[in-house]
Amino acid sequence: MYINDIHILLYVVIAILGSQIGQFVNYVNVALVNKRLIFKKETFQDYKQVAKTNYFLKLITMVTYIGLLYKFNLSLELLKYVILTPMLISVFITDLKTQTIPNRLSLTIFEVGLIFTFVLGIQNLNIAKDMLLGMVVGGGVFLLITLIGGALTGKEAMGLGDVKLMAALGLYLGAVNIALISVIAFVVGAIVSIVLLIIGKSKKDGYVPFGPFIAIATFITIFIPTGILYTFLMKVLSLGIY
């Protein structure tokens, strides 16, 4: 039996892989939140004693992997996003819990992005140029927001962790995708912030971590075609005039 020209057994295999990766992500998150070294025997032993199986993370990763296989088939793009997914989930959870994005996460995304830039650049130099431009756009835009926001308000408008993450994602995903992620992240962030204010879960000057919005925006950009996203964003930003 085939689904989208892919044998159903491959979906089963990637679902099992996703489930196992999801549990590993839970271990990594616990280590990062507690500022412990990930690949250390003592960290793993402590985790086994206190942590339970995180079925939600296992399910989320499993479903995401199945969706990636369905969209990208067996390709380099599939491998690219299979590697990125657990790191994005970690960004979402660690920033939500600690209001910081660990440098190790951003650096790992950057390092893997460099590898893909090299591999894809061998096939097509324009792809490598686009990925390098994405790093400049992603990091540059958020750094500019941080500097201008800090100058105008007298406080940090955007954490440097967000700047590093966007630079790394820009290298990983390219200029067009990082531009879309930037806009979508701000739209999602604005909507969530307004809802939190309305229901009384946030103060006007309260800090809302931005990493989760970046992670959500990245997944949206991965799964929804660029044309559809562009049309939707134009309607939202133009208040329906476009």
- Distance, first to last CA: 44 Å
**Rg calculated over all Cα atoms:** 19 Å
Strand residue content: under 5%
Shape: globular
Description:
The chain is mostly helical and 242 residues long. The protein folds into two domains: 1-74; 103-242, no CATH class. It has ten helices and two strands, in the order ββαααααααααα. Strands 1-2 form a two-stranded antiparallel ribbon. Helix 8 (175-198) packs across helix 9 (211-223). The protein is globular and about 50 Å long. The N and C termini lie far apart (44 Å).
What's the short version?
This protein is mainly alpha-helical. The protein is 79% helix and 2% strand. It has two domains: 1-74; 103-242, no CATH class.
